Amino acid sequence: MGNGIRMRATFASVAALFLAACGGGDDSPPVASPPPVASPPPPPPPPPTVACAVNRAAALAYEERRLTTPLPASGANVTTNDETPVATRILVDTGFDGFAPAFAAKLCAAGGTTQVTNLEQAVALVKAEGAALWRAAVDRVQRRRASPAASVLPASDDRMLYWARVAMSKELRQWAPSFALSAAQREQLHWEFERASRGQYDIDFPTGNNPAGKKYRRMIISGFDVFTLGTPGTPNTGLRNGNPSGATALEMDGREFTLPDGSTLHVQAYVLPVSYTPFLRGMQEDTLGPWFLPGPKRIDASITISQGSANRFNLEAFNGRFTGPTSGNDGIVFCPPGADRLPSFRWAIGSVTAPDTDPITDVGAGCNVTPPQRWVGYDAATRWLKDFPPQFIESSNPHAAMTTGNTQSGIVRPPGATSQGTEGFDVLWQTSFSYFPDCNAVDTVNVPTHTVFNAMPDLSTIPRPNPAWCSRNGGGGSYLSNESAYRNTLLRDTFMLDIPAGHIHIPVMNNYHSQAITGQPRNDNAITDSRYEAYRTAIVGQTKNLLVVVGNSLIFK
Asked: Bias regions of kind Pro residues — which residues (predicted)?
């Protein structure tokens, strides 16, 4: 019996194998084999690199040598003694101290290699890093970028942009890649970085109509760097200077305002250097020119802004071609004092205009503004021409509306400021100028302004420049404020535009506590105090009001 059971089991096993081989058995489909597992793609090759180094022995530019200079830390007007360089104090407080080290690491990593392998990549890097610095500064001022927890400087402070730019410029100057860079190519890198970090490549405007179907009105404004910073290495209070025109540019960049007719005023801003050579090379024209050209983004107003007189806004009537003897932030002087101070004076290439500064490198440096041929259509650099460009150019801002527009309303007057009324600052249509009756003699004649504040004078009493004269001062003097105004209005006339174009000279903001004015001790070691901040707040606020008045005038165009 056991054998029979084993035989039946064997037969069943054989039958099952036979049926399986023939496709018999249950109705379940055959199990598919899993697909082969694909191998992961190989990692991309690392980006190519080249060797690099940091040349700390490279000579620094004049402005870069101020990076290690502190405020006075002793003396009768000092109540604290922080000997940290001013630049470091401002950058750490605002959270901008990381920009230069991060830029340096991209230029040359710790291992002595860089992913920047040629000039084209270097240009792209400096433009990108400059643009990032500009956007960060705008974001901080417009309160989209947080400050460190221990920060004492308010969001409105403009100084971090200047000092971060100078610190990054130093890193670029000391960069030593293994591929060759000529002196001209290095200069190109600094030029592109400067322009990008000043917002000059960031400008763009909307086209067509706003969402309500009304026009966009396009306004471009400029501010300036901090200036009068003193001699590098010498502690001085000028190092802590801010510039409310630069603060206004950062505050206004990208802002929009609804005008009375429902149209939208869209503002774009950029910042100019306080040095002559970038102007001579056409930095301002290259920034403005593309927006003066015909097209859907052509601007409707171009306003230059700078810091000027105490306790008042000056709206200059006349801009002069003359460049005075004041040095720029780089220490260079374009027009010498004394007997050489004539409109036709030009420096020879290689001339050193002041101790310990770079020599003159560009044709046309001298006592008269020289616009770039690529924008005005004639060569004013290789030889002096009295009337090309003109000696005086007039502003086309809506001065009557600006002087009578009550832009002081709501502006808290800072401690120690003096003006009519109880709010803000006076506004003056500044009609002064001075001139050389004989363009070949140093004698000059001054024409003073009227003194009617917050209103327009009798226009029949206002003298105008004679085309036979040569300019010595415009209403804004003969420094870079006047030059920015002159170049702006010259470009307006070159393109024959009927737009507001002119200058706003805003009050000086660099006022700190003193026992006589605020009852608080003066401290030349402080980077800020409440009086200083009150001036910036008031000046930027009233400047914004003046710009909106200009915008409102556009609805009648």
From this structure: 31-47
The tokens for 440 are: 């070949």
Angle in degrees, 0-180, between the axes of helices 119-141 and 244-252, rounded to the nearest 10: 90
Stated as kind and residue range, the H or E segment containing 23 is none
Helix/strand/coil for 272: strand
User: Residues with Cβ < 8 Å from 141, sequence gap 6 or more?
Assistant: 155, 156, 157, 158, 247, 250, 251
pLDDT in tens, 142-199: 999 999 999 999 999 999 999 999 999 999 999 999 999 999 999 999 999 999 999 9
Pairing mode of beta strands 301-307, 501-506: parallel
Task: Provide the CATH number for the domain formed by 216-556 in this structure.
Answer: 3.40.630.20
> 215 with 269: CB under 8 angstroms?
no
pTM of the predicted protein model: 0.92
Angstrom distance (rounded) from CA 22 to CA 467: 113
d(CA 339, CA 78): 41
Residues 447 and 475 sit within 8 Å (Cβ to Cβ): no
Domain ranges for the chain: 50-197, 216-556
Residue with tokens 């697909």: 35
Q: Which amino acid is at 293?
A: L
Residue with the two structure tokens 């030059």: 483
Nearest to 87 by CA among 246, 272, 235: 235
The answer to whether the CB of 407 falls within 8 A of the CB of 424 is yes
